[in-house]
UniProtKB/TrEMBL annotation, chain A:
Biological process according to GO: amino acid transport
InterPro entries associated with the record: AA_ABC_transptr_permease_3TM, ArtM/GltK/GlnP/TcyL/YhdX-like, MetI-like, MetI-like_sf
ABC transmembrane type-1 domain residues: 17-206
Taxonomic lineage: Bacteria, Pseudomonadati, Campylobacterota, Epsilonproteobacteria, Campylobacterales
Parts of the chain that traverse the membrane: 20-41, 53-77, 187-205
Compartments it resides in: Cell inner membrane; Cell membrane
NCBIfam families cross-referenced by the UniProt entry: HEQRo_perm_3TM
GO terms assigned for molecular function: transmembrane transporter activity
Record SUPFAM superfamilies: MetI-like
Organism expressing this protein natively: Malaciobacter marinus
Keyword Transmembrane helix recorded: yes
PROSITE patterns: ABC_TM1
The family this protein is said to belong to: Belongs to the binding-protein-dependent transport system permease family. HisMQ subfamily.
Protein name: Putative glutamine transport system permease protein GlnP
Automatic annotation (TrEMBL), chain B:
Solute-binding protein family 3/N-terminal domain boundaries: 22-241
Keyword Cytoplasm found: no
Organism listed in the record: Malaciobacter marinus
GO cellular component: cell envelope
UniProt-listed InterPro entries: SBP_3_CS, Solute-binding_3/MltF_N
Record key words, sorted: Signal
Signal peptide range in chain numbering: 1-18
Name listed for the protein in its UniProt record: Amino acid ABC transporter, periplasmic amino acid-binding protein
Main localization of the protein described in the UniProt heading: other
Xref: Pfam families: SBP_bac_3 (PF00497)
Subcellular location: Cell envelope
Family to which this protein belongs: Belongs to the bacterial solute-binding protein 3 family.
Length: 217, 241
């Protein structure tokens, strides 16, 4: 065992972890917004054509590998004149992909609210928007919180795929150290520990949040 | 059950017997003209493949080619997945201390490639504050890492991705082996070579302490160089017309 190769590169690994957290966090926020908008619109089936477009979006992004989507966005789109930086492409790819999953989660949450809640808010004279904001979403959030946490963990882990866009996030940083030192055991074990610590802290936070949400209702 | 074990042992002994006359060569078929998949047949072809087969003829052994990820090549050698690496690998890439190396079989210049319209970069001094693309774990990467004052080194799994980014002007230059650059499709209409960097010595890489094999390979290389076979291969694959 030669963990010196890890120790010597700790600063580099932390820097790369920060980039992993940054990319996955921004992507999560955007995916969440996509999820709320698309998921709500799909729950209420406002217009046939709109519904068709949104369903296609979800099916396409869930039905193709994220890696292919990233390659397509970064290397394919410039062919037709849409060029962006590697970070932009990574965030776009991650948020569109996970936005599709998130939409389904939000839809399940919104549709899981009993009909009586809608009728009650209507009879209180609430507008559609305030009904969503004060009655439906808070309850849906409570229903979907565990799944949302899973999604964040999934984004964090899948962000390792953006290393193919020559972004030095955690996985790429590990590869970089590996090609210099050829110590796969120590390096990949360390990468695993780093990812685990990141996702596990998210689950802890989520459990705390869950408890709080339950006590408050 | 007994029969099964006996059969298993028989297979195993045949397998180990067969190994005597076989040299397994590990390479990463993503580096034309040294090794790549033929666009039509899908077979692995290139200078290194022909050279390996000629070495096999001299040593009277069968050559088996195994394709692997570039970054996994040296690890695979360590775990005996192949007997040697013949993959345009340079002395520096292989790291002299952990492996046995043959004599140099080819001297490959690393060159700076920029877009054809680019008139600002004409030598390696002009790379200051520029973004330079390289293949991760390649000799070119090591050379670029030694250059001072670059804005950023963009590292790609494979060279084609670096060239795509150069094409779309997300990076300023690519550093790559001369033969790779010059043999690329549409090279002259899109890019140009502006400067040379230090040459890297390409070697055959074997596991540490395989001294007998190393000796044989060196012997075969010397023979191929003296009987003209080597020159023919260089002409066939590496000379730029």
């Amino acid at each position: 065992m030669n963990f010196n190769v890890v120790y010597d590169n700790l600063g580099f690994l932390f820097e790369a972890s920060w980039l992993t957290i940054y990319l996955s966090f921004i992507s999560f926020i955007i995916a969440f917004i996509i999820g709320i908008v698309v998921g709500t619109l799909r729950s209420y089936k406002i217009h046939k054509l709109l519904d068709f477009v949104l369903t296609s979006y979800i099916e396409i992004f869930r039905g193709t590998p994220l890696l292919i989507q990233l390659f397509f966005i970064y290397y394919g789109l410039p062919q037709v004149g849409i060029s962006m930086s590697s970070h932009e492409a990574a965030i776009l790819g991650l948020s569109l992909n996970f936005g599709a999953y998130m939409s389904e989660i939000v839809r399940a949450g919104v549709q899981g609210i009993p009909k009586g809640q809608y009728e009650a808010s209507k009879s209180l004279g609430m507008s559609n928007l305030s009904m969503l904001a004060y009655i439906i979403y808070p309850q849906a959030l409570r229903l979907t919180l565990p799944t949302l946490t899973n999604t964040y963990a999934a984004i964090l882990k899948d962000s390792s795929l953006v290393s193919v866009l020559s972004i030095t996030e955690l996985t790429r940083a590990g590869q970089l150290i590996y090609v210099r030192t050829y110590e796969p055991f120590e390096i990949y074990l360390t990468l695993g520990v780093f990812y685990f610590v990141m996702t596990y802290s998210i689950s802890i936070i989520s459990k705390k949040l869950e408890k709080k949400l339950y006590y408050n209702t | 059950m007994k029969k099964f074990i006996a059969g298993f042992l028989l297979c195993f002994s045949m397998f180990s017997y067969a190994q005597e006359d076989v040299i397994t060569v590990g390479l990463c078929a993503a580096y034309p003209p040294f090794e790549s998949r033929d666009a039509k047949s899908g077979d692995i072809v290139g200078f290194d493949i022909d050279l390996a087969n000629e070495i096999g003829k001299v040593l009277n052994k069968k050559i088996v080619i195994k394709d692997a990820e570039w970054q996994a090549l040296l690890g695979g050698l360590k775990t005996n997945q192949y007997d040697m690496i013949l993959s345009a690998m340079s002395r520096q890439e292989a790291g002299e201390n952990n492996v046995n190396l043959s004599n140099t079989y080819y001297l490959l210049n690393d060159v700076i490639v920029v877009k054809k319209q680019n008139n600002k970069i004409t030598s390696k001094q002009d790379l200051k504050n520029k973004v330079v693309g390289v293949q991760l774990g390649s000799g070119s990467e090591q050379i670029v890492d030694k250059l001072k004052g670059l804005k950023k080194v963009a590292r790609y799994n494979y060279n084609p991705e670096a060239f795509l980014d150069l094409k779309h002007e997300r990076i300023d230059a690519v550093v790559v082996g001369y033969a790779y650059a010059a043999k690329q499709k549409n090279f002259k209409s899109e890019y140009k070579i502006v400067d040379k960097l230090a040459p890297s010595e390409l070697v055959v890489v074997m596991k540490k302490d395989k001294d007998e094999l190393t000796k044989q390979i060196n012997m075969a290389l010397t023979k191929l160089k003296s009987n003209g076979v080597y020159d023919k291969l260089v002409q066939k694959w590496l000379e730029v017309k």
